[in-house]
């Protein structure tokens, strides 16, 4: 959103955006951004808390009257505590990882989750999957594309599968990850249990117990080896806070 805000400003429209990852905003230098200390996917705090969300929006919009040059302000309030977020335990168990390729393992993992994801989509009547340009029935092709990048380390050529990608490499990698995380989240939502995990719990599961997490870390290593600023920015967008060498994938060096 920060990069898009720059283009909108050039057309003569003032903008104020909300930032969940300060390092990303610092990299693109938006005209005005309010950094909020909330979980990824929660730019306004907890769902259904209209009063708190309104406060966040007002703080962002107030920057239109005060910031006359690229500015990032910190929002000083924490979001209200979310009960029992840490208590979620993934009800899905995967087989012990073997010596198969990342491609074989990731496709098997996606196949195992597919019926659950389909159940959630049917119940909701929609899906958030497809930001890459993929159709809802092309999850396996998205997984194959991500695995190709992980195994080959090719950050230049878009993986050749049966999808017309909406993004070029290496930014496409970030959106491949987004689509697969959406798919995994939808699969978990259909599982019996105590509820759907928040983003922190979802990331802990993905990076602590899935082949998807392994593939994303492998790609992060390729992006690190490339070393150019764009690749390192994509690395920061790909790996959440705390899962890249124990810290931020934005601030870590080569």
Structure, explained:
With 254 residues, the chain is mostly helical. It folds into 2 domains: 2-74, no CATH class; 86-238, no CATH class. The protein is 50% helix and 4% strand. The protein has 9 helices and 3 strands. The protein has helices at residues 2-10, 22-28, 50-66, 102-124, 139-152, 171-189, 199-209, 211-226, 229-238, and strands spanning 17-19, 32-35, 71-74. Strands 1-2-3 form a 3-stranded parallel beta sheet, sandwiched between helices. α3 (50-66) links the parallel β2 and β3. The protein is globular. It starts with a helix and ends in a 16-residue tail after the last helix. The mean pLDDT is 85.
List descriptors.
single chain; 254 residues; mainly alpha; 2 domains; 3-stranded parallel beta sheet
Q: How is this structure best summarized?
A:
This protein is mainly alpha-helical and 254 residues long.
Secondary-structure blueprint:
Elements lengths: L1 H9 L6 E3 L2 H7 L3 E4 L14 H17 L4 E4 L27 H23 L14 H14 L18 H19 L9 H11 L1 H16 L2 H10 L16
Parallel strand pairs: 1-2, 2-3
Helix pairs in contact: 4-5, 4-6, 4-8, 5-6, 5-8, 6-9, 7-8, 8-9
The average pLDDT score comes to: 85
Largest beta-sheet details: 3 strands, parallel
Q: Roughly how many Å is the radius of gyration? A: 19 Å
- Measured as a percent range, the helix fraction is 40-55%
Q: Please give the domain count.
A: 2
């Amino acid at each position: 959103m920060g990069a898009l805000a720059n283009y909108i400003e050039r057309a003569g429209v003032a903008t104020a955006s909300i930032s969940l990852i300060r390092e990303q905003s610092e990299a693109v230098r938006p005209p005005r951004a309010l950094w909020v200390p909330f979980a990824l996917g929660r730019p306004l705090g907890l769902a259904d808390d209209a009063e708190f969300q309104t406060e966040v929006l007002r703080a962002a919009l107030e920057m239109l009257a005060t910031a006359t040059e690229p500015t990032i302000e910190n929002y000083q309030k924490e979001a209200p505590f979310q009960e029992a977020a840490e208590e979620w335990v993934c009800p899905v168990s995967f087989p012990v990882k073997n010596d198969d390729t990342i491609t074989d393992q990731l496709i098997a993992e996606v196949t195992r989750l597919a019926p659950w994801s389909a159940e959630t989509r049917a119940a909701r009547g929609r899906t958030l999957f497809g930001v890459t340009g993929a159709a809802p029935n092309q999850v396996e092709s998205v997984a194959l594309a991500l695995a190709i990048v992980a195994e080959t380390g090719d950050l230049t050529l878009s993986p050749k599968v049966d999808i017309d990608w909406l993004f070029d490499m290496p930014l496409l990698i970030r959106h491949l990850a987004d689509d697969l995380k959406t798919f995994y989240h939808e699969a978990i939502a259909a599982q019996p249990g105590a509820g759907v995990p928040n983003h922190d719990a979802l990331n802990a599961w993905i990076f602590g117990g899935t082949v998807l997490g392994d593939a994303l870390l492998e790609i992060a290593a390729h992006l690190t080896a490339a070393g150019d600023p764009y690749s390192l920015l994509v690395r920061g967008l790909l790996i959440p806070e705390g899962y890249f060498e124990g810290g931020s994938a934005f601030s870590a060096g080569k």
